[in-house]
Amino acid sequence: MSSDTMALRVAELMKAYDKQPYTTEFDGFQLKIGKGVFPTDVSFATLKLGHILGNYHPEYAIDMGCGCGYLALVMRRNGVPKVYAADRHPPAIECVLENIRNNPEVGPIEVCQSDLFQEIEKEVVFDLMVFNHFYRPGGTGIFGENDDGGKDVFQRFLSEAKHRLNAGGVILTSFVKMSDPENDPQAIAIQEGFNLRTLLTEENYMNMGDLFIYEISLGA
Ligand SMILES: C[S@@+](CC[C@H](N)C(=O)[O-])C[C@H]1O[C@@H](n2cnc3c(N)ncnc32)[C@H](O)[C@@H]1O
């Protein structure tokens, strides 16, 4: 990614940070975006993931790195019986709890402050995981600790996910090629022995780089 493109993206995120906290109407939800919570409304991939989630009918699902919790809310709205929302960033946990209270029609969501699966009961396994991760290490660092962003966190996520995915279960994730290729979940998933399907590609999305949505699964 060129330094100009990166500077534009950082400026967009800082603009969102400056107006936080705010509430926005987003895909039919009243969403609060708390101070220091990743601004879902300027995310590249969150809304696209939200729409794709409608194609899946899991019993147990998790929104990993939930931020304000939009993807968890979508899964409940889609009728998924048991939905977890996990994030390690305390402002995100406060924010998702508030969004669940403000959208009472979606019903209960299990919220967990957790570094990946660490604080989630060992016996809980999932049919669907969605992880809209940070695409690179570093970045602004204001929407959650991000020194391990990109490759490191995604590799760790997949090695834990192996023990938390039901047979036939899938992981949905995204990537924008503004980040270095080593951070692309495609390469990481294949190295870790997963199967991968590209569900969506948009070339040079918002002039930032090619956008991908992936479905990752374990072989039979
Ligand atoms: C790009 S934001 C996505 C937020 C939200 N899911 C969305 O799509 O708008 C990434 C989120 O992952 C969380 N996160 C990063 N590393 C994590 C980890 N190891 N365990 C749990 N959450 C993590 C961050 O705190 C942040 O809220």
Task: Describe the secondary structure blueprint for this structure.
Layout: H1 3-19, E1 22-26, E2 29-33, H2 46-52, E3 60-64, H3 70-77, E4 82-87, H4 90-102, E5 110-113, E6 126-131, H5 151-161, E7 165-176, H6 185-191, E8 194-205, E9 209-218
The protein binds S-adenosylmethionine.
Structure description:
With 220 residues, the protein is α/β, with parallel strands linked by helices. It has one domain: 3-Layer(aba) Sandwich (Rossmann fold), CATH 3.40.50.150. Helix content is 29%, strand content 30%. It has six helices and nine strands; from the N terminus they run H-E-E-H-E-H-E-H-E-E-H-E-H-E-E. It has helices at 3-19, 46-52, 70-77, 90-102, 151-161, 185-191, and strands at residues 22-26, 29-33, 60-64, 82-87, 110-113, 126-131, 165-176, 194-205, 209-218. A seven-stranded mixed beta sheet has the order 5-4-3-6-7-9-8. The protein has a two-stranded antiparallel ribbon with strand order 1-2. Helix 2 (46-52) packs parallel to helix 3. The chain is globular. The chain binds S-adenosylmethionine (SAM). Residues 38, 40, 43, 46, 65-67, 70-71, 86-89, 92, 115-116, 132-134, 143-144, 153 line the site of S-adenosylmethionine.
